[in-house]
Amino acid sequence: AVLGVLKAGAAFVPIDPDYPDQRIEYILQDSGAKLLLKQEGISVPDSYTGEVILLDGNRTILSLPLDENDEENPQTDTTADHLAYMIYTSGTTGQPKGVMIEHHALVNLCFWHHDAFGMTAEDRSAKYAGFGFDASIWEMFPTWTIGAELHVIDEAIRLDITRLNDYFETHNVTITFLPTQLAEQFMEL
What pLDDT digit, counting tens, does each position of 67-107 carry? Predict the structure, then answer.
């Protein structure tokens, strides 16, 4: 969904469905989101007036027939200075604030990440952070842009250090970001 939004020439706003309802409502209103991509079982605030597209379940956008006129790679007027995404701060000092990130900044992050961690297409990276957290951008985009494999960590094993370690070993995960306390336990294991 994230790549589809960018490919269409739009910008995305990552919202963790576990956020409190008030925070989700605020982000949708403040960002001016016109389209909400969601999964089945995730509620939409009553105040949201934009369009909602379901990404899974019985009636999804993916179940619609393709139009033979659809372009494989749609052309857009997007440039390096256009908005790629907007991410919201934690709001610990008041209301969350939307931070706007342009394409060139995202590309620079990816190049830096590839260089700093010696990342190659042979790496296997884990997406551990919640979708609304800025670390999730660091997990997804550098991995995708270099052609490496991305493993989205299931909620059932996120906080179980032994199961997480088993997953990383079984799937040969080579790069990941973990919260400091968890990383310390992980390295001891």
Answer: 666 667 778 899 999 999 999 988 777 788 999 999 999 99
Distant-in-sequence, close-in-space partners of 110: CB < 8 Å, separation ≥ 6: 141, 142, 145, 146
Rg of the chain taking only CA atoms, in angstroms: 18
Query: Cβ of 22: how many Cβ atoms within 10 Å?
Result: 9
C-alpha to C-alpha distances, 71 to 11, 41, 55, 68, 93, nearest whole angstrom: 20, 31, 20, 8, 45
β-bridge mates for residue 36, sequence order = 52
Q: What is the pLDDT of residue 154?
A: 92
| Weakly modelled stretches of the chain, pLDDT under 50 | none
The set of residues, in sequence order, having a beta carbon less than 8 Å from that of 95 and lying 6+ positions away, is 26
Report the distance separating Cα 14 and Cα 133, nearest Å.
8
Bridge partners (DSSP) of residue 127 are: 152
Q: How far is 149 from 163, CA to CA, in rounded Å?
A: 20
